[in-house]
Design a protein that fits this description.
Structural class: alpha/beta
Number of strands: 23
Distance between the termini: 71 Å
Mean pLDDT: 98
Helix content: 25-40%
Bound molecules: nicotinamide-adenine-dinucleotide
Number of helices: 15
């Protein structure tokens, strides 16, 4: 059994109680995380506050430390990837990509600087706009990308000069706990504290008066609770929330050419990506060909235990998500939908669900209207591009969208009518450290990544020097 300690003020800390962690490939408990007490949380916030002035003082040192943190992730690649696969379920190869991606993000932030902008320099005044780090920040992460969803907060925040109390998801706390243990050698005490527990710990943290910002990734329902908690003492928030991304295929696309991109845009990480294609709109003229190509890929993809190097897709990460996906697909089939591939759980232990393509549904079907966050893609025919755009936009979410076409100019024109924070031509989910990442409408507030992500961990200060 794996049991790791929390990191509070640079020290390993255990708790009187623990939270069990399942391996989704077996459905059995394989580790435990400490269940942080309210007093331990107070200590973590106090440590982050005490470390803040020293950490905020020297940007050049922070940039060096970010490089060291990246190096330590790379040096511990296999251990961290193994923990991700055990607690989250993704194939080892994908887990290694996640760890290396985190190191890449940290290196990127080490190359940035906080902006200073001179807006007036004349005989009357010298005026500049500078950025000041916010102070102790809560980073609340999620189980589909346990380390990525933490590093996209920690990296830019550390560059900006903030300190952290990080709370990973109760489903996937172990890789983050281990990362903080590894980093204890590098970081000054209190700069990154990691605490674990149930969702209740999230409520204590978001209500804590010592926290100045909440950087949150999770569901829209929880995001609204976080916003309410933040309002009490005007904490800043970044909310990366749910999505129901549409993919729109145009009639000049070649289904044989785009099927692979569409499939992985929907099924990567077993569909558990906020920006996965969650509903696909295809012109009537290309419908059967596209559906057949996707169904063939769904039947062929290797689903299994992530520790088997042949595995391309792992299980769903937890029983709750498995039940949700199974329920949405069953509901769609009861309403007259047809599973042209998959449509059922796999007959083995763990939270496995067969990659599923569903036709014969529309926006009245919960599988289409809600966020499934799993390996089940509804594919729908449309008659005109205007109709496809209207249907894609008829969602409370606004995270990402993609248009697939042989004519990229035409695709760009169609994308310009979609109400989302991110828009792709002939791909979906392509992310990079310099690209802003975030949604509009119910998909969130603010963005992560790039200089915009760094600025979100700062307050703006206008500095005016009179010269008259
Ligand atoms: P969730 O909202 O239940 O949990 C997310 C995190 O919030 C966890 O760490 C959890 O412990 C914590 N939490 C739960 N209740 C809380 C509360 N009241 N106050 C503070 N923290 C609380 O999310 P989930 O349903 O487990 O995760 C899936 C969702 O996350 C999907 O909707 C998905 O789209 C979304 N997601 C969004 C992004 C993005 O960047 N937009 C990325 C990944 C996942």
């Amino acid at each position: 059994m794996t049991t790791l300690s929390m990191t509070i003020n640079g020290q390993g800390v255990l708790s009187p109680e623990t939270v069990p962690v399942d391996n989704p490939a077996t459905g059995e408990v394989f580790g435990h995380a400490p269940k942080c007490t309210p007093e331990q949380l107070d200590s973590a916030v106090e440590a982050a506050a005490a470390a803040f002035p020293g950490w905020a003082a020297d940007q050049s040192r922070r940039r060096d430390v970010l490089m060291e943190l990246a190096g330590a992730m790379k040096a511990n690649l296999h251990e961290l990837a193994g923990l991700i696969t055990s607690e989250q379920g993704k194939p080892l190869d994908a887990a290694r990509i996640e760890v290396l991606g985190c190191a890449r993000w940290l290196r990127y932030y080490s190359s940035l600087e906080l902006p200073r902008e001179v807006i007036q320099d004349d005989e009357r005044a010298f005026v500049e706009v500078v950025r000041r780090p916010l102070g102790p920040t809560a980073a609340i992460s999620v189980w589909n990308f346990p380390l990525t969803s933490a590093i996209w907060k920690i990296g830019p925040g550390l560059l900006a000069g903030t300190t952290f109390v990080v709370k990973p998801s109760p489903y996937t706390p172990l890789a983050t706990l281990r990362l903080a243990e590894i980093w204890r050698e590098i970081l000054p005490p209190g700069v990154v504290n990691v605490v674990t527990g149930t969702d209740e710990l999230g409520t204590w943290l978001t209500q804590h008066a010592g926290i100045r910002k909440i950087a949150f990734t999770g569901s829209t329902a929880t995001g609204k609770k976080v916003a309410l908690a933040a309002a009490t003492d005007l904490k800043r928030v970044t909310l990366e929330l749910g999505g129901n991304d549409a993919g729109i295929v145009l009639d000049d696309a070649d289904p044989a050419k785009i099927a692979d991109g569409l499939f992985w845009g929907a099924f990567n990480n077993t569909g558990q990506i906020c920006t996965a294609i969650k509903r696909l709109y295809v012109p009537e003229s290309l419908f059967s060909e596209t559906v057949d190509a996707l169904a063939a890929l769904a039947e062929k993809v290797v689903v299994g235990d992530g520790t088997d190097e042949a595995t391309e897709l792992g299980p769903l990460t937890n029983a709750m998500q498995h039940a949700k996906v199974a329920g949405l697909v069953a509901g769609a089939l009861e309403r007259g939908g047809r599973a042209v591939a998959g449509g059922a759980s796999m007959d083995r232990p763990g939270y496995f669900y067969r990659p599923t393509i569903v036709t014969g549904v529309d926006e009245d079907t919960p599988l289409v209207a809600e966020e499934q966050f799993g390996p089940a893609l509804p594919v729908m025919a449309y008659r005109s591009v205007d109709e496809a755009v209207a249907r894609a936009n008829a969602s409370p979410y606004g995270l990402g969208a993609s248009v697939w076409s042989s004519d990229t100019e035409r695709a760009r024109e169609v994308l310009s009518h979609l109400s989302t924070g991110m828009a792709w031509v002939n791909s979906h989910v392509a992310v990079a450290p310099h690209q802003p990442f975030g949604g509009i409408k119910y998909s969130g507030i603010g963005v992560e990544n790039g200089p915009w992500g760094v600025e979100s961990f700062t307050d703006l200060q206008m500095v005016h020097e009179a010269r008259e």
